[in-house]
Amino acid sequence: MTAAASSDADLITAHAAGDPHAFSELVRRHRDRMWAVALRTLRDPEEAADALQEAFISAFRAAASFRAESQVTTWLHRIVVNACLDRMRRRQTRPTVPLPEAGPGEPVAPRDAMAERETRLVVQAALNELPEEQRAPIVLVDVEGYSVAETAQLLGIAEGTVKSRCARGRAKLAKVLGHLRNQSADANVPVNDVQVQQGRQLEER
Amino acid sequence: MTGNARRSGPPWSVDLLADLHAGALDPRTEAELRPLVENDPEAREILAALDATLDDLHNLPPIPMPRHVAERIDAALAEEARPTAPVIDFAQAKARRAKRLGWGAGLLAAAAVAVGVAVVAIPRDNTAGDGGIAQQDTTTNTPVTGSAVPPGSADLPAVRGENFGPVFGDVLKAQNYGPLENQEQLADCLRGANITAGKPLGVSPITLDDKPAVMAILPAGTPGAYRIVVVDPQTCGPDNPEGVLANSTIEP
């Protein structure tokens, strides 16, 4: 039942029927994407790991009563996103740990990849500076590729709210990232974005 | 959103154009704005900047889950999948056998449920015989005193005997070496019992039968298998096998 060909719904059914490996297989399928969501929204690897562990345990316990009103992936992702949002709400402000500069599988390419890697760092740093209410939908829609409808469902907000929060966040990012260099910076750009802009200017030299 | 239409035209509101770009405007406002925007170079430049921003976001690299996090979550799920597995820690069972007459079968069953994991004793090093975890089985309830008591030890996860189940999840989530301070010191302690260990999946100060100790959960070499070790931070070291108080595996 835990063969790769099984659908997510098959795995949930198998889990409910007592297959001890079915749920782990489900997690294995989705964990990278969920890890990226958790890490990019929480910005702290330890917190992201804690949130995912809690979320998966919670899902494990609830899975037997899962009803196919929504897709398994949506249901599972929502539990993960909620775990992250809960943590974001619980914490006030706390220092964050920089994200890894590159995925573990990325080759070390000393020259050509440097500029690209710096750009990614600058983008990630700018993303980190967004208010949480804007960062979460931007991570889901623009980085992870969820649809607006899926994101609305995951975050428990209206689709229009997802769109407008994404719009606000993108406008800020466009300025911070230097795409709107000729525009007067009239958005709520945080002070430390100056460093981000400087970083981008360095990279563009 | 129709109110934003009042700001249409140079100088453009970036937020208004971002709303347009995101499809966040109502259809009527959007219909009014589109021709104005398409005929205005400044507006088109702002939309191009928003497109470039989207490209930047789309191009952020995937972030695969690190192996140690994946292992930690696998371990937590494996433990969750075995809520009623029996205790089959042979060394411990042997040590307790004499006590069984005084205990009801129902109580033993309850203890097995509480453990929640199948624990299999691992032979210790060649010189330790079948001692397993027996060395820690000095069941005195000596109060922990002096510097041996870590601050806040009352809040530490508490283990009785081999009942690791209730603290397993907490330890798995922790990376706190407590009095051992770092991975190297833990590795030194485990070397005393001929256990070679890399970075633990989880490590935390605990109390073991009211004594301060440090518990670590290690990969056991096969998928779904994990090793639980407990050391006495006061005495453990590379030359002291007695410093390892417990050494068990959880097997799938």
TrEMBL record, chain A:
Q: Name one GO molecular function term.
A: sigma factor activity
The record's annotation in Pfam families points to: Sigma70_r2, Sigma70_r4_2
* Keywords attached to this entry: DNA-binding, Sigma factor, Transcription, Transcription regulation
CDD domains, alphabetized: Sigma70_r4
Q: Which residues form the RNA polymerase sigma factor 70 region 4 type domain?
A: 122-173
**Chloroplast as UniProt keyword:** no
Q: Which domain of life is it from?
A: Bacteria
Keyword Magnesium in record? no
The RNA polymerase sigma-70 region domain is annotated at 26-92
InterPro entries, alphabetized: RNA_pol_sigma-70-like (IPR039425), RNA_pol_sigma-70_dom (IPR014284), RNA_pol_sigma70_r2 (IPR007627), RNA_pol_sigma70_r4_t2 (IPR013249), RNA_pol_sigma_r2 (IPR013325), RNA_pol_sigma_r3/r4-like (IPR013324), WH-like_DNA-bd_sf (IPR036388)
Q: What's a single GO BP term from this record?
A: DNA-templated transcription initiation
Similarity comment text for this entry = Belongs to the sigma-70 factor family. ECF subfamily.
- Protein name according to UniProt: RNA polymerase ECF family sigma subunit
Tell me the organism: Saccharothrix carnea
| Classification lineage | Bacteria, Bacillati, Actinomycetota, Actinomycetes, Pseudonocardiales
Automatic annotation (TrEMBL), chain B:
Regions crossing the membrane = 101-122
Looking at the record, which segments are called Disordered? 127-155
**Positions with biased composition (Polar residues):** 135-145
* UniProtKB keywords: Membrane, Transmembrane, Transmembrane helix
Name the domain of life this protein comes from: Bacteria
**Keyword Transmembrane helix in record:** yes
Q: What is this protein called?
A: Anti-sigma-M factor RsmA
Species the sequence originates in = Saccharothrix carnea
